[in-house]
Write a structure and sequence with these properties.
The protein is mainly alpha-helical and about 475 residues long. Helix content is about 55%, strand content about 0%. The protein has a two-stranded antiparallel sheet with strand order 1-2. A two-stranded antiparallel sheet has the order 3-4. Helix 13 packs across helix 15, helix 13 crosses helix 16 and helix 17 packs across helix 18. The longest helix is centred in the N-terminal third of the chain and has 25 residues. It is globular, with a radius of gyration of 25 Å.
């Protein structure tokens, strides 16, 4: 067990080390030097005067947001003696399953590369570079022949792997017993029950206002909505990431959502961020990767055929192609159960000194990957800011949805949580679904997608249906309370 004081010291040292290599550190140094020429800075109280200057000029708040962001992204430090693989994933059978899954993905990619006789990466000819640059904002009009390309895997393939996960140290035979879970996920992970969820999501309690419910037609808007929006504007004015994250737990006003999410993720779209995006764009223009075709194929199969997202096709290409070249994404593998795939320079197979990560960001796109980005397109219309938001959300949250781990926010725990709650609190529905061959965990995504579209269409037709939907939300709050 790591001593709390020792853990705090390690956390502070890690945050300091990371911030020292950031652009914020150099900006703070530059501002501190500038402050030396101000008349209010006295030599006898130099340290305190500079601190006061950084505080009044807003730089202290930026530093606090950066520290808060680091604490949210990286996990708590483990014991110094813990092996690296234990830090990434403590359960050996999970690590083994993830390793096997990665080999399967890589085999699928290499097989496609061999079958099509296409290199993993090659430099684009000058005329092709010029053409791509000219149509950068109209890539959706391009119709390359993608008939020979196939996704490396689909969500149903990943689901099969999750269904077959077993803990070898846990008795779990074929015959049903009290130890068996009746859903698809058969690993004994600890997930939260209703009392724990009520504590974690206390803002959903009936005694606390929630935007989207307490601003309904039956309640005068000044009772909650107007006040909540005013508080949100004050949070944005203060530019406090921690306050913003706490604020949105009671609902996020549509007009403030884009700015609040950016504040929570500590995204400011500074000139250096825009320049970094342009560098990634230049890399896309100069080099063609095999995964580019997988990205094109995925967008064509998913977002381009969606009533809500087809208008964002160009944004999706821009963001995802740049994302595949971003080597800063590799950093998330230090706390992810996954490992970035490697490729070797031709003729140097197996020689580690000639190994490179492929793709450069270490993430092989799969069928449906573009749908991680699509909803964000409604909020951000500057490609550079949209890119930063997506990248930050990926390295914080999205990667856990397609990697095998025991993390509470991982896909395995989320599936098990859903099945456990349904089996415990709605057993008749759970057993009925099993009997007709429609496992709840297998159908959740499809049901949610159908219900969302259904309610959107019905809302425009009838106020009665709107009220029914709001009543359903009220019932959900009652159930959780």
């Amino acid at each position: 067990m790591l001593d709390p004081d020792r853990g705090l010291s390690l956390t502070i040292a890690r945050v300091v080390q990371r911030l020292q290599g950031s652009s914020l550190h150099s900006q703070l140094e530059r501002q501190a030097r500038v402050s030396l020429h101000k008349p209010e800075i006295k030599l006898e109280s130099l340290k305190e005067d500079i601190k006061d200057f950084l505080k009044t000029s807003g730089w202290e708040k930026k530093l606090q947001n950066a520290v808060y962001s680091e604490l949210n992204v990286f996990p708590s430090p483990c014991h110094p003696a813990a092996p690296p693989e234990h830090i990434k994933e403590p359960l050996a059978y999970m690590r083994k399953a993830q390793g096997s899954w990665e080999k399967r993905i890589l085999k699928s990619l290499n097989s496609m590369c061999t079958e099509l006789n296409i290199p993993l990466a090659q430099k684009r000819p000058a005329n092709e570079q010029k053409e791509l640059l000219n149509k950068w904002n109209e890539m959706g009009t391009d119709e390359p022949d993608l008939s020979l390309f196939r996704p490396v895997y689909a969500p149903k393939d990943f689901l099969e792997v999750l269904m077959n996960l077993r803990n070898p140290n846990y008795e779990n035979g074929e015959q049903p017993s009290f130890r068996n879970h009746l859903g698809l996920i058969q690993v004994p992970l600890k997930v939260k029950d209703i009392p724990e969820l009520k504590e974690n999501f206390s803002e959903l309690g009936l005694n606390i206002g929630q935007l989207g419910i307490d601003d309904s037609a039956q309640v005068p808007p000044e009772f909650f909505e107007n006040e909540h929006v005013c508080v949100g504007q004050k949070v944005l004015a203060e530019q406090d990431s921690a306050a913003a994250q706490q604020y949105v737990r009671q609902g996020c006003p549509t007009a403030l959502r884009a700015d609040l999410w950016a504040l929570i993720l500590n995204i400011s779209n500074q000139p250096e961020d825009i320049l970094y995006y342009e560098q990634l764009k230049s890399n896309v223009i100069q080099h063609n990767l095999l995964v580019d075709s997988l990205i094109y194929k995925d967008v064509k199969l998913t977002a381009s055929n969606d009533d809500y997202y087809f208008v964002f096709e160009d944004y999706l290409y821009q963001v995802l192609l740049c994302f595949s070249r971003d080597t800063s994404v590799l950093e998330h593998f230090t706390y992810s159960s996954a490992n970035p795939p490697k490729s070797y320079i031709q003729g140097k197979l197996g020689m580690e000194e000639y190994a490179v990560f492929y793709p450069p960001n270490g993430v092989i796109p799969f069928h449906g990957f573009s749908m991680y980005v699509a909803p964000l397109c409604f909020l951000y219309h500057e490609p550079s800011k949209l890119y930063q938001i997506f990248r930050e959300m990926y390295v914080r949250f999205f990667f856990r949805l397609h990697s095998i781990s025991s993390h509470p926010s991982g896909i395995v725990s989320l599936c098990l949580l859903f099945e456990t709650l349904l089996q415990t609190h709605l057993p008749q529905l759970f057993y009925h679904l099993r009997e007709i061959g429609a496992q709840p965990g297998q159908k959740t995504q499809r049901c949610v997608r159908f219900s969302r579209r259904y309610w959107k269409r019905q809302e425009s037709k009838s106020h009665l249906v709107v009220n029914s939907w709001r009543q359903a939300q009220e019932n959900l709050k009652t159930f959780l309370s």
